[in-house]
Amino acid sequence: xxxxxxxxxSEKQEPEMAPQKKQILLSDxxxxxxEIRSIRTKTIIAEAKTFKNKIKPSxxxxxxxxxxxxxxxxxxxxxxxxxxxxxxxxxxEVISIIKRESIVQLPEINSYDDVKIFNATSSKMxxxxxxxxxRQSNVIHIFAKKYAGKLKGDLKIMTDGxxxxxxxxxxxxxxxxxxxxxxxxxxxxxxxxxLIDNLGDQEKQDNKTIDELVAKxxxxxxxxxxxxxxxxxxxxLHINEKLDSLSxxxxxxxxxxxxxxxxxxxxxxxxxxxxxxxxPQKKLLLNLIANPYNELIDSNKRDIIQILESTRKGIQSGxxxxxDTDKSLAQIDETLSFIDTFIEKIASxxxxxxDLENKLSVFSSEELRQKESQLxxxxxxxxxxxxxxxxxxxxxxxxxxxIPKHVKSxxxxxxxISAVQYTIxxxx
Length: 428
Known about the structure:
- The chain is built from 12 helices and 2 strands.
- The protein is an all-alpha fold.
């Protein structure tokens, strides 16, 4: 309150007492919290009722003071007319507000909500009276000095009591917040324990699955080993080695053919533009220039010889121009003489290759491929599951370490709201 009206009294220091110590189970905490809240609620209701009983006579007292003040002329007849009006106006305001507010009906108190309503009502009443006395402080202290002390005394009694109720409400609000925190922490602990159980069950299942995968991997390896130790597989590898060596032979034949056809590539390229070959023969000619190996087969022999002989005639007639006619003719003749040999070499190679490839059927590589693919899949599954297990173990460890911290927080909050020093022990 302003101007010295209704100031709060200083708080008394209560003597310190050694707290009572008590061990409880986590499951006991909700009941302890309920008991603390219940006791605190009953206490605040009782204290509010006590204050209400005290405030009634004080209201009656200040009402009588106001009535006495109303009758008192304050001996203002001899003062300046303007000052007299100010004093009378101030006196009238104070009396009016005291009369109106001192008879305000205060609510009954049967619950904590009633306490808050009562506190709001009494606070509003005291503020209005205090503000009025503050505004008219000079009038009261100078012209109505004999009433000032009485008003101040009774207002102080009411204000101090009301401030105590306000403080109790604030403390009770903090208590409610802390008890809700306690219940939230308990819920977190319960969820953590449930999670630990679930993680433990999952870990057991995962370890079982790991064991199954290990057995499958060993079985896969054994099957692959048996396949690779078979005579069929040995023969298969031997045949593949022969096929690899054939590739070298093919490259040798191909290089020989390409070297020979390179000698006549210039006249052949010029013959493309001057020839009157049909479309298939012209295509054959272009392919001979680009990749003669692929065209040297028995079915193309007649056309190839015809193309080379036509090119020879073109050189002789001059329709196919070359720098050295004799040399080009000799190279074409040389190539013509090799045609049968080239075709035979290619055919012999293809026969050998086909014969070896047919022999590969002695072994089914698809079965080995499937077994190796299955092994890889099982190994990947095991690796993925091991990663998951490691992550779950970290979660389990972190969750387990969190519970004692939650318990310590519970103890700390409990000891803040209770005179008893609680220690929470593990559930048996």
